[in-house]
Amino acid sequence: MPGENLSRDEARERAELLSVDGYEVVLDLRSAVDGAEPASGPRTFRSVTTVRFRAATPGATTFADLIAPSVNAVTLNGRALDPAEVFDGARVALADLAAENVLVVDANCAYSRTGEGMHRFVDPEDGEVYLYTQYEPADARRVYANFEQPDLKAPYRFEVSAPEGWQVWSNGAEESREGGVWRFAETRPISTYITCVVAGPYHYVSDTYTRGDLTIPLGAMCRKGLAKHFDADDVFLVTKQGFDLFHEIFDYPYPFGKYDQAFVPEYNLGAMENPGMVTFREEYIFRGKVTQASYERRANVILHEMAHMWFGDLVTMKWWDDLWLKESFADFMGSFGLAEATRFDQAWVTFANNRKAWAYRADQLPSTHPITADIRDLQDAKLNFDGITYAKGASVLKQLVAYVGREAFLEGARRYFTAHAYGNTTLDDLLSVLGEVSGRDMAAWSRAWLQTAGVNVLTPAVTCDAGGRVTELAVLQEGDELRPHRVAVGLYRVEADGSLVRYARAGADVAGPRTVVAELAGVERPDLVLVNDEDLTYCKIRFDEVSLATLRAHLGDLTDPLARALGWSALWNLTRDGLMPARDFVALLLAHGGRETDVGVLQMLHAQTLTAVTRYAAPQWREQGGRELAAGALHQLRLAEPGSEHQLTWARFFAACAATEGDFQLLLGLLEGSARIDGLEVDQELRWDFLLPLAAHGAVDEDAVHAELARDDTASGKRHQVRCLAARPSAAVKDQAWAAVVESDSLSNALVEATISGMQQSSQRALLAPYTDRYFAALERLWRERSIQIAMDVVRGLYPSLQDDAATLEATDAWLAAHTDAAPALRRLVLEARDDLARALRAQGCDAAASA
């Protein structure tokens, strides 16, 4: 990987030298199905690229980017260059440039099994081959020669030769197809990382969006094996709702012609905003019954990627420092669009409880960074697709809307698109237009919110008189950087019927360490003060003693779903911060979780409570806590309305925390049909959910897992099978899983993920203990030999986090001290894992103290 890196300084120098006029990319993908796998080396395809570009300084030297097993020919301005002399495996050296240049590179590029570049997938169900590309931040160079940086935008023409019976799509509209050769219209100027090719025998559905004189052809596709599950009508419904909203608020027509959406296998991301050809992970096609929360997540991603057509594709950041200029806006617009234009009108509840949890975690890691980050190179860029750039950035934009006003924010966006269409921008370009339309000091706002790291804590301080009236309510702010917050402060009381409702509210501009909310003086004493009511700002909230006691007793009685989600979020942060025992959070879930109406919030609570028991609870209470959790989950499963999504959610949670022989017998009975819970349909996906804990606890053997694959001999079934096999409680099994991931690179990205998640079972700490030393011994080799995506997955996934003791911290510190010269991105991953472990140990200490 080091030879494939590109620094910000190199990119800046190249951008000052070059202007790119256009690309013609010719790919021959017929080798995707021809012949057996090569005996040595990767399977390859031919890629011929013609680049027309200008140089500001004739005679200068630069380089093009290309990662390929071999290069057949390189021609610069009609002059043949020796590939052995100019190509080093990652770069093509270009010397003696003219004012106007034509570069032709004829290469043999490799198909990918890692989800980077041209990914090749063979469907085990029918043997069909499917291809798609994925490039962000810099993997287009795995498919064609280019200048791989976002600020060298250019138009593209693609020509693709494909096997008989296939279809091919790219960013541009299809112009012709003849003799298996597909030609596509030239694109508008775009960056390398959002070009795209999708090819194979995909199932394809079409539709059309119209608005006034504007007509956008729509398409949606998936593997043939998933066609029977593909609800394209709902995908198109959300797509049209998004286009209606964004055209109305952006007042800039969608600029890229057609709009295809491909759901593809073994995808590393949620989705990718390739203009005209958006790609999604195929798990958004649901093979069984799922809750509305799953449909909401898919709709959010559809709108997120659509927002990128303006924020990111039309106007693109100059370098990855300003990644937030696209990702933060798209993340914000995903929830904004859901709430404004779709049936998911409670999207901000999900945002408060789910997306912000990701941001809070990221912002408390040692690797936290300002939203406008310092991205030195491509490895830094790869790691900064994180909770800061996405969820914190979106949270800060929500705060910005409260700060400048909705219409000023949207007018600023409209002017930004018009001024910078098809260009590249930096932070200052956006701030100047927002300051212009709002009259606010955007420089001060930016320094506080975009250019500093860390999360503030807001806590209410309430004093009352003898008559039970508030004499003063203040908001206390803590943090390394005290920021301006526009908040709503809500006062709640318990009514005679037991419900917890808001009876007073005041808006306030919190600044400095202490802000008095004068408007609330004289009101009746509250049972609960919610200092970030309506979730307008980005902060962690705490409670005064009365408010915390009220939440413990009445959290389920909060009638407002957003207020309830904020309460749950705050209590989880207290648990993560080691300020509330993990067993208390478990008790809160058992007491109030059954009354949570928002199924997305409930699913998040289930995940957090499992973490509380397996990571944050004192080891001596862990087993008891697991039994209590499983018993509570089963109780709620039996109480849930038959056939409801809450019943399904509790069924999955019960399987995840099953702890006793009775639990396992019930799961077996549900699988075999000898047990039944009224209304619960055990479809194929739920069968795998039940089988995993049975395999992990030795309640079923290898034959049962293979038999389940025979029932579901599909790509999804194969991933489930690999996960279940790796989960079995056997030293030999763990050694096989380790070897498959660490000592071999034969597994695809999806099967690497499945193997790691199966191997790392919280009930198998003793079995996993021997891998701590092996993990640290393998780190540098893995980082050197694997693609960055696979290396990241392995480094994160196999960190010995379940060996939660001081010895593991010491081993981590010893590796860090001995490897100060290791790749910064690798050190960052290890530091983050160490921080999570240290946090878990602090939380365990808090929980242990609760039983003392």
How would you characterize this protein structure?
The structure is a single chain. The model has no long low-confidence stretch (mean pLDDT 96). 44% of the residues lie in helices and 20% in strands. It is globular and about 90 Å long. An 8-stranded mixed sheet has the order 5-4-7-2-1-10-13-12. α18 (661-672) packs antiparallel against α19. The two termini are 50 Å apart. A hairpin with a 4-residue loop joins β18 and β19 (277-281). With 852 residues, the chain is α+β, with helices and mostly antiparallel strands.
Compact overview of the structure:
With 852 residues, the chain is α+β, with helices and mostly antiparallel strands. The protein has 28 helices and 28 strands. The model has no long low-confidence stretch (mean pLDDT 96).
